[in-house]
Structures are given as structure tokens and as C-alpha cells.
Amino acid sequence: MIYTNGCSWTFGSELADVRQAWPYLLGTALGATVDNQAEPGTSNGSIVRRTVRDINEYVRRGLRPTVIIAWTQLHRFELPIGNSHGQYYYNFVSPKDTDVPPVGLEIWQNWSDDVTDRERFELYKQLLGAYLAQNQIEYYFFNTFNSVGPNSFELVTQGLEQGPYRHPLEQAQSKISKHVLTKINS
After folding, report:
1. Domains of the chain in sequence order
2. What confidence tens digit (pLDDT) does each residue in 89-128 have?
């Protein structure tokens, strides 16, 4: 079994059938079932939170899927909004979004820059990697948008066939799947 998580590129946004997204193509190539928990517009913090939640459930049931994470853009972040239990989360994707709560704009203006965003991302990678290793889960990390250094493979994203909203289309999804397959088989 393969568990994947990421943003709209991994979800399969702009595809006629999301089952043509690279996680499913990879699963077919490996003869494995796929649990694709990617969400459009998500942040790396959300990817970590949801992966830990899901893998905890798998481990509780005695299952250990191979985890493949396709990290999203570094400037995105998630905050619990709503009640004190953190049941509602808001993913801040871009300061240009028209529905950004004021706290999001304040964070981008005062607490988000290239250095801070990279440091936060490295922390996410280290924490999730340690958690997965502790639970004896095989995992692979891929950087989808940003080149950020060691411990992750870069996905080939330049020159891929994209839809009007810049998501990879069928041919590009196939290329991404082959790239991931090559990396996990090496």
C-alpha cells in the first residue's frame, strides 16, 4: 500500500479523472493500492498534521504503508481557526487571495520571508521523517515547487504540460509518476 499526501499537483486538480494523478499511476506501476490524501491549496504544516493523523490510524490497525510526501510551496501555512479544539483549519495559500483573514496578511508581512519559510520547512521535514522512522514506515519526500536542499528528491516540474491553472495534466502526471518510481527504485 502507498500513502501519498501533498497539494493540488498530487491531488490531480484540472484532470478529467483524479485517478490519473501520479499517485494512482505509481500505484498501478507497483501493483499497490493507493490512499491519496492530497488536498488542493494545502500547506506543508497541514500535510504533516494530516499524515501523522492518518499514519497513527494505520499503525493502530497494524498496517505500515509506504509514505510518499510531495511538499508544497514554502510560503503557505496553516492556522487553527474557529474553536479552542483546533477542529477548523485554514490554509493560507497566497497573500493575493481575496478571502485571506487579516491574521494571514499580518503573518506574511511580518513573519514570512525566504529564510523563515525554509527553516520552518526543514523543521517539518525533520519532524515528519523522525515520526515515520520511529514507526518503522518507509518514506520518500519530494519537493514539488522549491529547491530546498538535501533529504528530498526534486520532482521534475519544469516544462510539464499544464492546465489553465498551472496544474500538471495527464502527460505531465505520467512523467511525474515515472520520476517518482525511478527515485524509489534506486
Report:
1. 2-185 (3.40.50.1110)
2. 777 767 677 777 777 777 777 777 888 888 989 999 999 9
Torsion of Cα atoms, 46 then 48 then 49 then 53, to 10°: 130
Residues 124-136 as b/e (b if ≥16 CB within 10 A, e otherwise) read bbeebbebbeeee
Distances (CA, A) of 6 to 30, 32, 46, 170, 180: 20, 19, 9, 17, 14
pLDDT over 60 (residue 148): no
| pLDDT at 110 (0 to 100) | 75
Q: What is the DSSP letter of 81?
A: -
pLDDT attached to residue 157? 60
Question: Contact, 34 vs 24, CB < 8 A?
Answer: yes
Secondary structure of residue 28 in the 3-state scheme: helix
Strands of the sheet containing 139-143, edge to edge, are 34-36, 2-5, 66-71, 139-143, 153-154
Residue 1 has which C-alpha cell? Answer: 500500500
Long-range contacts, 129-133 (Cβ 8 Å, 24+): 131/52, 131/55, 132/55, 132/67
Tell me the pTM: 0.88
